[in-house]
Amino acid sequence: MSDQGKSTDSATLSAIGEARKAGIETVWDRYQAQVPQCGFGETGLCCRHCLQGPCRIDPFGEGARTGVCGADADVMVARGLSRAIAAGAASHGGHAKHLAHTLLKSAKGEAGDYPLKDEAKLRAVAGRIGIKTEGREAREIAVDVAEKALQEFSEKESPLVWAATTVTKGRVETFLKLGVVPQGIDSTVAESMHRTTYGVDADPVNILLGAVKCALADYAACHMATDIADILFGTPQPVVTRANLGVIKSDSVNIALHGHNPLLSDIIVQVAGEQEMNELAVAAGASGGINIVGVCCTGNEVMMRHRIPLATSSVSQETAILTGALDAMVVDYQCIMPALAGAAECYHTQLITTMPIAKIPNALHIGFSEAGARDCAKEIIRAATDAFKKRDPARINIPGISSAAFAGFSTEAILSALSLVDKDDPLKPITDNIASGNIYGVCLFAGCNNVKITQDANYTAMITELVKNNVLILATGCASGAFARHGFMTPEATEKYAGDGLKAVLTAVGQAAGLNGPLPLVLHMGSCVDNSRAADIAVAIADKLGVDLNMLPVVASAPEPVTEKAVAIGTWAVAAGLPTHLGIVPPVLGSRTVTEVLTSTAKELFGGYFIVETDPLKAAEKLLSVLGERRRGLGLGS
Amino acid sequence: MSDQGKSTDSATLSAIGEARKAGIETVWDRYQAQVPQCGFGETGLCCRHCLQGPCRIDPFGEGARTGVCGADADVMVARGLSRAIAAGAASHGGHAKHLAHTLLKSAKGEAGDYPLKDEAKLRAVAGRIGIKTEGREAREIAVDVAEKALQEFSEKESPLVWAATTVTKGRVETFLKLGVVPQGIDSTVAESMHRTTYGVDADPVNILLGAVKCALADYAACHMATDIADILFGTPQPVVTRANLGVIKSDSVNIALHGHNPLLSDIIVQVAGEQEMNELAVAAGASGGINIVGVCCTGNEVMMRHRIPLATSSVSQETAILTGALDAMVVDYQCIMPALAGAAECYHTQLITTMPIAKIPNALHIGFSEAGARDCAKEIIRAATDAFKKRDPARINIPGISSAAFAGFSTEAILSALSLVDKDDPLKPITDNIASGNIYGVCLFAGCNNVKITQDANYTAMITELVKNNVLILATGCASGAFARHGFMTPEATEKYAGDGLKAVLTAVGQAAGLNGPLPLVLHMGSCVDNSRAADIAVAIADKLGVDLNMLPVVASAPEPVTEKAVAIGTWAVAAGLPTHLGIVPPVLGSRTVTEVLTSTAKELFGGYFIVETDPLKAAEKLLSVLGERRRGLGLGS
After folding, report:
1. Chain A residue whose CA is closest to B586
2. Cβ under 8 Å to B: A residues 73-102
3. With a cut of 0.85, is the ipTM above it?
4. Could you count the other beta carbons within 10 Å of the beta carbon of residue A436?
5. pTM for this entry
6. Contact B329, B340 (CB under 8 A)
7. C-beta of residue A568 within 8 angstroms of C-beta of residue A85
8. Would the pLDDT of B1 be above 90?
9. In this predicted structure, what is the pLDDT of residue A334?
């Protein structure tokens, strides 16, 4: 694989070159070593769910047609997909539960480092989920919210509150009719694991409906995580920062925060800003003091709440270390390549794990607890400063490349900007412009960078095509990492790439918001759990138009997805009624039934369905065509 | 594979011959079509936990050494094992939760078909878990027990009650020290799924400790399932019935109950015994009326509580249909081969699914609900009777083979028999005889039949060797199916195979119990969730001797294991301190670290450890040697 086949980003390519010179292995080398990958696994036709296996089914129909137990290709593929979604839901559930526990401790005065920062959000969430707010102290309300949140994890008689109160009435009816309403997050994960073990569910459609139920539990977990993070750390408002490896500074103690949960990273940012810590860094010889940078979704969390620049994300996470100037990489959980340990060992970088369920051999483990969050943050910063002293200046190679990035367009921030255009009816500028065609439709970009795709190539090709056709772009997670690196999260990009209609809308709102120019081309909504924010926007538009989500000219795309979480998110986007594009073929092609259900039957059941297309231009065309179809369905010009 | 390589059981071999004549595929054919199985999967060196995969590591060190993310062989293998255990715990959890919900409904008067059959057990369980019983109505107590049970599924601040109150104090201390105490069944399953997704836990030992925690959640679920089943359906007492295909009757409407949960099967047995149903069958031409037979663990449940004969189990489940005289196969969940549908289609047999999470295409689905359990049972019996009318007498080929089987040795039944020998100190006859060497040790046989092993060959070879050396045998699940088929669950087998010491003990207790002969050679303790009964016996002996479980001359063996549940059970047996034999190599050999932790480090941590040995005679020798070592540790003769 040529370097040009690895990434479209100059900074990343520079780091890759550095790695080659230094003989350091990166993700692209490891991928090369795996090629060709197993065809059975790629098509989902392998099962290891019992000790009579492993079983495989020949996708060409020449070998075995079923596993030892009699499970056919449909069952095997559906089982595998179901377990991936269960793992995704379990991950978002773990993240959300962690925040809910902290909210409870905060409210009870047991976690002094976690004040209730956003009382308005607390009251809004409480009101939505049926908790009395009038005349009550914030702390009392927070206890109730946290307890209600924790109850969401176990099976109850009623549907998940965080799902039922955040989607349209029409969706709730559809979910009830299809029997896919989850009643507990952890309990639904467990149910998926049970139904996919040896000799339980052998009906592929039933397995898939169970998987949708689990994906909706994932949705509830995501929404809960967003809500509670906002209550504890503040609802994001637009900020301007920078993105790409150039944000790492040669004169500073550079600490990268990587993973997903703001629980520790937000505190590290707070503590790093204090005089004492800065002096420590300066005393160690770092004239620039401490420089915190973000990686992946922890990066998104601190970017939108604290203007922390984003160093890199997803597939290129190792490149932060390859700059030779990263003194510590602090990780919580999810998407943390075990390979970081090997990369860190080639430099002075201190890799620091912090969570009990996510350790890495040879990393320094500094155990996090809410009660001692600030102390933990200080210990981490001290460890980074110690590592800084071991830095080899001769090995510093920071690509001097970064782009401006506007971040933090939470639902509340977007509505607030729109209310400057129409105080009484903030959504009117959106719905009017959708009706007029100035906004042809909305596309939410989410997901990761996958090593199988030249990094960011799908994102950049697709966005260019979509915005030219006046599609409004929302982005979360490592999709925003991709857009930020390439300068798409700026007003300048709006000027350069947006079609006339879209440009007019973004400019009108930007002017009203006092930006003296248009809004950025991409509205950054946060980390990957924050896909729920995009769902909120879609629900608000649907309610305003008096239609269900499956009628809206709104689509989603994960052009370069990696994780099981992405599979779960994609599935709930489909269940929510959104046509959802995947730029990677998921391991389902071994089953005609599963493939048909996902790409076709789902449309009849939910309105949403998967569009699998690896060519980004064709993908953009397909999404535009779908948006046109949706527009015609609403009686709008297409 | 010659037929002799498929099974050691004549009835099964007869059915296999019939299948060949009729051109019907069985599990052994499907296995042949899978051979050679994938070496990566067999060694655990394959990972499909993200869309950058599938990744594989060459076990011979020639190809890739890590997956794309950098996960090495240790991480890959540990992750796979952890997910298998999570699936096992989820399955037992689902089973237990189902029973707990029914207990609650029963106590609240919402499930009239489920009276509280065993009030003594209810009070004993309640007392053990800290619920007040004195002066309270059974129903009130049952509400509290059920609610406490349901709380076990979500994360609490304290350890699982069903684990903490049922093991020795020493075990609780060990588990606390190692951080493996589960605080919720479903929540621990979800935690395992989270920690094994892309980029979370990369420390193989940490992953394995997480897996042990999940296995202990599995233990709690098993124990809960046993407790509540006894409360609702009665604590088993010894019964005599018969086992093997010969229990199917040509003149009757034959209904096989297959799966795991007694919730529906117990009601079917009750309803089938009623005049109305019998008349229906006779009217249809079945002069023998209705004949209920069991398969797998549902078979165990109804065998020990209602003397229902066991037709077959585990790998040979299809043979019940191959008799040509099975009119309905009713399944709940777990271990139900999807292939049953194909076999049933070759005959008149009606395959009936009953649970929402376990459907099979082309089967008749009769949905079960507690509120309408009797109605559901009647509908099932009617469907079986209808199928009977389509039976082709020319195709009936019931092997006239069956053995007597003594079943139902619950902990309570064993203690009650022992109290006839020593009223004041029922355990004394056991501990005294262990001390004297009349009982050299105890071996619990559990698990399945695996198609890779000539059916029952490992069971029969091992038991013969062990009892000759005076090892007391307990059995559960499909291990008892194997022993029952071969006549080992009889007093005659004691006479024939037991060593002198063991024979003397079993005879003394048998005589005291009025059996006019010895106890059977195998004490059948129930279904596979009932492994908790064996744990109870071991805990009672340990407490009596004043030592912890890791000192006892007690071992466990799964000579022919299949399911992820078996992996979970084996792991908690190890954590409980028992040396645990596996007759199948689990998919871990790809990792030296994981293999060492399971077979060696575990001994230091827990006292228990895995002994993997595919040769049954060598396995028996190893277990005898371990028992000798344990005896010497207690200062007893070996």
Report:
1. A51
2. 75, 80, 83-84, 86-91, 93-94, 97
3. yes
4. 13
5. 0.98
6. yes
7. yes
8. no
9. 98
